[in-house]
Design goal:
Number of helices: 6
CATH class: Alpha Beta
Radius of gyration: 16 Å
Number of strands: 7
Structural class: alpha/beta
Oligomer: single chain
Helix content: 25-40%
Distance between the termini: 40 Å
Order of helices and strands: HHEEHEEHEHHEE
Strand content: 15-25%
CATH topology: Rossmann fold
Strand order of the largest sheet: 3-2-1-4-5-7-6
Length: 192
């Protein structure tokens, strides 16, 4: 298992950078993120250079092979078990994370808990295609293989999960969705 995780960490940046347009999406998404920020599932730290000056970012990443590539202090914690006090952050950032957490409901409950009143979750996620579409049916069939290959689900209805967790969602479909993981949505979710 550790060999697979090491290889995944080494291949992550080149693989994700090939997804045309995602760097521009990261820049746009994080341009006005400021204050106390928690990035869950920080991976290898691809977002680091996109944060606005003055953002006080705490990186949480449970995978030690990913975390060692961040070149910043990292809290070794999964999104389901955030070791922070209630109301610690102005913003929580999730980029390509909610598709891979073990328990999306528990993860979003933890995000809610650590957000301050008026806080928001900023996200960039690949999600399930609209119900009844050919792509949604293909995602359902391919999900077991995708999970084995990419370590995440290609058919999670993340917007529905956010709404079920009590967030008010403002999201748009990205025009830069790569063919291997689309649609991709970008946006923010505020506490209701």
């Amino acid at each position: 298992m550790s060999l697979r995780r090491r290889l995944a960490a080494a291949a992550y940046d080149p693989f994700v950078r090939r997804a045309h347009g995602l760097e521009a999406e990261r820049t746009a998404l994080l341009a006005d993120v400021h204050g106390a920020v928690l990035e869950i599932g920080a991976g290898t730290g691809l977002n680091r250079r996109h944060y606005a000056a003055g953002a006080e970012v705490t990186f949480a990443e449970p995978d030690p092979y990913m975390a060692r590539r961040i070149a910043a202090p990292v809290v070794p914690a999964p999104a389901e078990e955030l070791p922070f006090a209630d109301g610690s952050f102005d913003v929580v950032v999730s980029t390509l994370v909610l598709c891979g957490v073990d328990d999306v409901g528990r993860s979003l409950a933890e995000v809610r808990r650590v957000l301050r009143p008026g806080g928001r979750l900023v996200f960039l996620e690949h999600v399930r295609a609209p119900d009844g579409s050919r792509l949604a049916r293909a995602q359902d069939r391919l999900n077991p293989l995708w999970r084995a290959f990419a370590g995440c689900d290609c058919n999670r209805d993340t917007v529905a999960s956010l709404e079920a967790a009590g967030f008010v969602v403002d999201a748009r479909v990205s025009p830069f969705a790569p063919p291997f993981a689309h649609p991709v949505i970008a946006g923010a979710a505020e506490l209701s």
